[in-house]
C-alpha cells in the first residue's frame, strides 16, 4: 500500500475516540433529519393533505437518489482517477484558462526582462500574482491528492480523467444543487399560499347578501357595464398593445377581486349547478398542492439539462451568462400569456352577447392555452425554478470552493447582477406567476383531479 501523503493520517493512525465521535455526530444528524421528515409526514396525514404527503415522498426519493449518487462518487474516487486520457484531450473545453499557462507566461516575461534589462512594474506584479496563484493551486492539489499521488497514476503525456479533488468538488456541487432545488420549491409553495390568503377573503364574500344582490340572476345589465369587461376592454384590446398591457399587468394587480369572482362563477357554471356553494378557493389550493408534486421533483430531462450545462460551461463561451437570461425570459412570457388568457376570455364574452343576466359568465376552454395544453405552462414553470436553483447553487458552489477571485468570477459585478436577478425571479415566480397559474389553469376544458 502506498504511504500517506505528508500531513495526512489514515484511520489506523487516528484515535478511536475521534472516529467514534465523528460517526456519532453524523448518525445523530441523520436520525434528526429522518425523524423530522417522519413527523412532517404524520402532520400532513393528520390534516388530510394527500398531495403534500406525496410531495414529501418525492423529496425522500430524491434524497435517496442523492445518497446513491454520493455513494457512487465516493467509490468512483478510487477508480476514476486511474483512467488516463491523452493530455491534449484533457486540456480542451476547460471552464477556466489552463493554469500551466500562468507559469509559462511568467517564465517568458522574466526572460524578456533579463534580455531587455528592465520591465514595467505592473507586469512584474502581474507575473508574481500569477505565479503565486499557480503555486497555491499546486499545493492545494497536493494536499487533496490520494495516498499514492496523482503523478504515478498516469504515464507522461497523459492525465487522469478526473482527479480525486475534482470528484470531491463534484460531490459537493450535486449535494448543493439538490438542497437548493428543494428549498426553492418549498419557498415557492410558501409564498404562493401567502398570496392566496387574500383570495380566501374574496371567497368568503360570495356568501354575503351584498354579493348575492349584485349578482342577482333576475338582474339584466349591458355587458359593457360589468366591472370585468371594463377592466379588460378599451385601449388594452388593440393588437400589439394588449401584449404590453398584459406584460406590465402581471406585476401590478395580476389578479383582482373582479377577475377572481368572474372566473369562479364561470368555473362553477361550467362544472356544477348554478349558484352552487362550491368552495373554489379550497379547490385551487388543493390543485396547487397537486402541482407542487411536479415542481418539487427533479425529472430526467432536468438532470440532462444539468449535464449539458456542465459540458457547455467552457471558458470564454459565456454559456452561463446566456443561460441565466433563459429562466427570466420564460417566466415573463408565461406571466404575460396568463394575463392574456383573462383578456381573451373577456373579449370573447363581449363579442358573444350585449346583455348579461346576473353575473358575467366566462366559458372555460383549452383553446386559450398554448397548443390546447394547460399543463405545458406548469412544465415551463418547473424548468424555470430548476434552472434558477441550478444557477444559484452553481454560484454558491464556485464561491465556496474557489473563492470570489477565481476565474469563475472574473466579472464580479455581472455575477452579482445575475444573483440579484435570480432572487427577484424566485420571488416573482413564487408570489405572482405560480398563484396566477393555479387560478388561470382552472379555465381549461376539464376539471383537475383535486376535486
TrEMBL record:
Membrane protein topology class: Multi-pass membrane protein
Domain of life: Eukaryota
One CC-aspect GO term: membrane
Keywords: Calmodulin-binding, Membrane, Pathogenesis-related protein, Plant defense, Transmembrane, Transmembrane helix
InterPro entries according to UniProt: Mlo
Family, as annotated: Belongs to the MLO family.
Protein name: MLO-like protein
Lineage: Eukaryota, Viridiplantae, Streptophyta, Embryophyta, Tracheophyta
